[in-house]
Amino acid sequence: MSLPAGDPRPDEEIERVLVVVAHPDDLDFGSAGTIAGWTGAGIEVSYCLLTDGQAGGFEPDRDRAEMPAVRRSEQTTAAGHVGVRDLHFLGYVDGELAPTHELVRDIVRVIRKVRPQRLVTSSPERNWARLPASHPDHLAAGEATTRAFFPAAGNPFAFPELIAEGLEAWTVGELWLVAHPENNHYVDITEHFDAKVKAILSHVSQHPDPDNLPDRVRAWNAQNAGAAGLPEGHLAEAFAVVRLG
């Protein structure tokens, strides 16, 4: 079944956005250009990183015990390039993420703290055309976040322990999925592409060939722009947007 046309609320009606991903750098590849546009328009954007990316990197001799701190620092630097200051690190283990009751609860906790009108995450559906984007941790992050989006975050009877923490139910109106098999919404990021590249390159521990990375990312975003029908030379990020109600 095809998705309906993406119909997000105008950005002028959005005050807060929460982005939930499995690993540091996931959101920078998928949506940093869009995020830079949002923060530039005065929208508050928060990040929720589910794992510390302990299994990432390319340096075989590096002490793996250092990686959580390294990757948190890199993500914090990357966030600054696109105007984000509020980061939540949940500390789950890279490569072991699963959409458990506990993970859904922890995402709901952040949703109720941030109280966003828009939620961005990885698609919970495997994209066979872009299998690396459908890393098992990405699928788990997408599934857990989708469960948090509906119905858990807005259900006052879900996770009563959060009510006891003073975190009242909060309904998020929009879910934006990255790397979904089918997209229905594109954001022109041409003027924010340089900020996106700076954010991606902040993840120094992850890039053995940083000099060629900007051209590769540009090619991906140019392909999206073509699919969106934008003029030649424009760049875009792609999403599947779902609205409640």
TrEMBL record:
One of its GO terms (molecular function) is hydrolase activity, acting on carbon-nitrogen (but not peptide) bonds, in linear amides. It comes from the Bacteria. GO terms for biological process: glycoside metabolic process. InterPro entries: GlcNAc_PI_deacetylase-related, LmbE-like_dom_sf. The keyword Zinc-finger does not apply. Keywords: Zinc. Pfam families: PIG-L. PANTHER family: LMBE FAMILY PROTEIN, N-ACETYLGLUCOSAMINYL-PHOSPHATIDYLINOSITOL DE-N-ACETYLASE-RELATED. This is LmbE family N-acetylglucosaminyl deacetylase.
